[in-house]
From TrEMBL:
UniProt protein name: UBP-type zinc finger domain-containing protein
SUPFAM superfamilies reported in the protein's UniProt record: RING/U-box
Lineage, highest ranks first: Bacteria, Bacillati, Actinomycetota, Actinomycetes, Streptosporangiales
Domain of life: Bacteria
Domain annotation UBP-type: ranges: 1-97
Region of interest (Disordered), residue spans: 76-115
Short name of any one Pfam family annotated for the protein: zf-UBP
Alphabetical list of InterPro entries matching this protein: Znf_RING/FYVE/PHD, Znf_UBP
């Protein structure tokens, strides 16, 4: 994990997955790009927007955007690890449900997860 690929001053793009919020999507867990702050949904989520962001931009490092989690993941090596503290906030709001966003999660959401 190269710290030159991390911008510790880049704020997160918002409290939830940027693409899901722009459309009608929903997410299971959230991930934050360490290079630009883009918040996308995890690979278990229907949209898999964090991985799509990597594929479109080449930004290889993400951090969990879940409360109480600070691990990083490198898409190239497929390994998790530690990294520097990113700009606040370091997670979505604690009162935001997971899965989310509230009101959009289908009743059968567990059947719709990617495994």
């Amino acid at each position: 994990m190269s710290e030159s690929e991390i911008d510790t001053s880049a704020p997160p793009s918002g409290p939830g997955c940027q693409e899901c919020l722009a459309g009608e999507g929903w997410w299971f867990h959230l991930r934050r790009c360490a290079a630009c702050g883009h918040v996308g949904c995890c690979d278990s989520s229907p949209g898999q927007h964090a991985t799509r962001h990597f594929e479109e931009t080449g930004h290889p490092l993400i951090q969990s955007y879940e409360p109480g989690e600070a691990w990083f993941y490198d898409f190239r090596s497929r390994e998790a690890g530690d990294g520097p503290e990113l700009a606040e906030p370091t997670s979505h709001p604690a009162d935001q449900p997971s899965p989310g966003p509230e009101g959009r999660v289908p009743a059968d959401w567990t059947r719709r997860l990617h495994r």
